[in-house]
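Pair request: fold both.
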Amino acid sequence: MLQLSTANLLTVLSVALLGGPATYLAWLAFSQARMVARRRTRLAGGAGIPAASQEPILSSLFNSIRRLGQRLAIQDPSKLSVIRLRLIQAGYFNRDAVTYYLAGKFTALVVAAIAAVLLLPWAITSGGGGGGGVTLLALALALVTLLGPDHVVRMRRATCDMEYRDGFPDLLDLLVASVEAGLSLDSAVTRVGDELARRYPRLTEHLRFLTLELRAGRDRRDAWQSFAERLGLDEARSFATMLRQAEEMGTSLGDTLRVFSEDMRIKRMLRAEENAMALPAKLIVPLILFIFPCLLGVIMLPAIYSVMLIMKG
């Protein structure tokens, strides 16, 4: 009787806790749809067109998520800049990426709270060892939903970092060839971006941003420094520093690029050799777990079968 009353109390508490976020999300979606309907009606000259026919459901949902992220946006500009830089380094170039990221974290938090609260009465009322399993399931769901957005961003950034590291030496080689052919550095960046678009698409996006900044009149040193910060590579930062020093000292840009490009090629070769040397150590676990048991079985089973026949005879 005590368990049933406790379960009923937890159910009421769950409904009360979940009613607030659900009501807020519904109100936000309704206000977004109403605002879009008013804007469309005003642009159409006052014609009363139903809101459902004006705004698709998916577009309305994305607009609601964006407004939710704008309401949850951090007021500190420095923190917003850090989040935006992380998303740009991960390959999310949309200007609303920060709002979608914050809205996604809030939605994951709501999902974690809903899962934990709904599974709590089941964990209390279930007898035996079922309560521990339900509790572990709730904890696993909470961890997945809470750490999910950050994990997705980290995985995407790791993939982008691999592409940046592989493509940066090729970028320097093409820059050297373009500059030695008589192009200026700004024109060479545009040309190289066109050449690398198919193999390194994310790196090409950063090059396009760099080209737009240079065309807008931004100082070359600041533009290359911003390019290095967006990539998040130590090689890119060193390259930006090298360009600044070459411009200040008046040294030949072609010779400087050639030396730096050779250094990048050597580093890429050393990195490939390091990965090759680490391969035997990484193969130890698969060898012990999968290959050696099969090999022992192939070698020992015929001998064991022969011994069994001899003992029977």
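--- second member of the pair ---
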Amino acid sequence: MSAVPPGAYRRYADVYDLVWRAAPYDRFAELCLEAAAGQGTAVRRVLVGACGTGSAAVELATRGLEVAGFDLSPAMLRVAADKRAPLLAVGDLRAIPVRDGWADLVTVLNASLNYLLDPAEVVAALAELGRVTTTGGTVVVEPLSSRFVHEGWEPGRHVDREGLRLDATYEVDGDLVTERLRWTAGGVAEVETYRQRLYGDEELEALVAASGLRLVERRPMWPAIADEPARGRTLWVARPPG
């Protein structure tokens, strides 16, 4: 793995938390725990995949749980470490740096799976999530589906506060989304571009099945999270074999 893996947030890590400071990470954590409880999973250990700057991991740790997180981006993990986020490691969803069956609950939020542009990569990642989940455990992922785009996709996102001005634009070409981030902070202008692939519900169901996971539920995030960005977003709840 390269020091700065392709597709991982780099300079954007410096302003990520300012952009998303109002995100209800406490509710994200609660919804994931509720999903696990609905499957009868007694949660003691949680693995947060693609944990980013660690906000969800910190929220889960405040509930007295043993929490670990990993992410492709060392820059994002440095921000997470400043928050005293627990047990952090650089790691890839397709090769998770955790032993078999370690976690009772495994989460991958914020459309992180969509940065895997090849369906085979998604199958590999889902299989890895199942591998690190204990028997009787629960896997919760939040993919971005093509359905979300057609239910109110916003053509851009703009932030102007506390010395940060950011403009994010999205271009949709079939199943591919190109995200262009342009921002200025502290008098320095930055630009980064990322790509995601949208997976329709039927395709994603097939990928889950191919990974060996068993899809047991899809939980809409809205209106449990009343903020408008939650519309069209869904938690996919799955169980590992056994």
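Observation on the second member. The radius of gyration is 17 Å.
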